[in-house]
């Protein structure tokens, strides 16, 4: 997704450093009480080295639901659900 290659365009400060973790880029291990924690998780694309942040997950879900054909081909999930709903009437 574009928020990884161009995080600033989506309001993130970085996609290379996790909000919570240890070691370089907060990229070692999971988020624990001993981890470094960012002051504002809404501006980080990743919560920990493995999981997108809540805000990044919202962008991903929005792409599945209402995204254009650049990412969702031949149609997004909202269109599929609408087709399913109209076929039952």
How are the elements arranged and paired?
Layout: H1 2-5, E1 20-21, E2 36-37, H2 54-66, H3 77-87
Antiparallel strand pairs: 1-2
Can you characterise this structure?
With 89 residues, the protein is mainly alpha-helical. It has helices at residues 2-5, 54-66, 77-87; strands spanning 20-21, 36-37. The longest helix has 13 residues, at 54-66. The model has no long low-confidence stretch (mean pLDDT 93).
Based on the model shown, name its key terms.
89 residues; mainly alpha; two-stranded antiparallel sheet; 2 strands; hydrolase
The largest sheet has its strands arranged as 1-2
Instruction: Output the structural class.
Output: mainly alpha
> Structurally, how many domains make up the residues?
1
Q: How many distinct helices?
A: 3
C-alpha-based Rg, rounded: 17 Å
Could you give the count of β-strands? Answer: 2
Shape: elongated
The helix content is: 25-40%
Main sheet: strands, sense, barrel = 2 strands, antiparallel
- Give start-end ranges of low-pLDDT stretches: none
Average of the residue pLDDT scores:
93
Strand content: under 5%
**SSE topology string:** HEEHH
Task: Tell me the span between the first and last alpha carbons.
Answer: 36 Å
Task: Give a short summary of the structure.
It contains 3 helices and 2 strands, in the order H-E-E-H-H. It is mainly alpha-helical and 89 residues long. It has one domain.
């Amino acid at each position: 997704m574009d928020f990884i290659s161009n995080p600033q365009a989506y309001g993130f400060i970085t996609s290379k450093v996790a909000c919570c973790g240890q070691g370089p880029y907060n990229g070692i291990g999971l988020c624990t009480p001993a981890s470094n924690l960012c002051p504002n998780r809404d501006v980080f694309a990743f919560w920990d080295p493995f999981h997108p942040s809540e805000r990044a997950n919202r962008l991903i879900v929005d792409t599945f639901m209402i995204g254009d054909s650049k990412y969702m081909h031949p149609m997004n999930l909202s269109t599929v659900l609408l087709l399913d709903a109209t076929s039952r009437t």
